[in-house]
Predict the 3D structure of the following.
Amino acid sequence: MSAPREPLLLRRWPGLDLGHVPLGTAPTPVRRLEGLVDDVDLWMKDESRFGDGAWAGNKVRKLEWIIPEAARRRTNTVFTVGGIGTHWGLACALYGREHGLRTVLGLVDQPVDDHVRQQLARLEASGATIHRYPTARQLRVAAPWLIATNIRRGKVPWYLPAGGSNAVGTLGYVETALEIAEQVERGELPEPSTIVAAVGSGGTAAGLVLGLRLAGLSTRVFGVVVNDSFALDAPVIAGLATKTAELLSSRGATELPVIGAADLDTADDWLGRTYGDPTPASVAMVAKGAAAGLELEPVYTGKALAAISDLAPTLDGPVLWLNTHGPR
Ligand SMILES: *Cc1c(COP(=O)(O)O)cnc(C)c1O
């Protein structure tokens, strides 16, 4: 066994009053992707293996900070929400269980394909308490009741928004951005002009924006919005980055940058009809990825790659795509 990983955030501010549990192996590898998309110098940072349990991917990065924060808030239960194929809910249930944290899930119906069906089966086997609703509105109405009925011995469930995208979860991608900066420093990849990531709840993009600025890189974040269940544009994501900077500052970090909407780009042109809708372009990219040995899905990673493919002629310099999918 190697020594537990010390997060770069805690190395930067040794006195930072934040807990961290290592749930995956970092840094995740970066490599050039040949032949997947034409006309662009494309690199991949592979978050798909990040995690030690039955599920990996970008949500595990958030849980490294969320799980210890629950203990700090003196609760043993989290209540969170998502679609019936939620990667976030599954990661939360599986990693939470390993750390004594109970997960209550409010799930909303979404378009069902094989991947979603398989996810739902995994969710049902995960030990989470599951409540299902046909629409997000019905879930919102039921949420206060769900929280109240899941109070155990006076411990009130901590509400975590969809995707784990509160300021605490977003720290996972501040950490990842610092990691990318180190990899650039070591010459493992050229400094990217752009990092492209799918945006489902915003924490990944927000964390990257803040972390890249902290690291002093001028790389821009391009968020490919794949969710229309709530507002997810540059001002919203910059707002989450700002809240994360405020959290860091309240826990002892210094010299934090001011983030604004002009610090990133977003577009929802690859969303299709709605969240979870596999577009022809995303399905085609999943097939191309499979031919190149990558296991992708059409809801997030397929759409991010479809965006890169369409934008390729306009993208100058190296592009780093964050492979956020985490099958095991
Ligand atoms: C959740 C998810 C994303 C989006 O991350 P957010 O932080 O929710 O924006 C991207 N890709 C995959 C595979 C995901 O499960």
Observations:
- The longest strand covers residues 77-83.
- The CA atoms of residues 177 and 282 lie 26 Å apart.
- The radius of gyration is 19 Å.
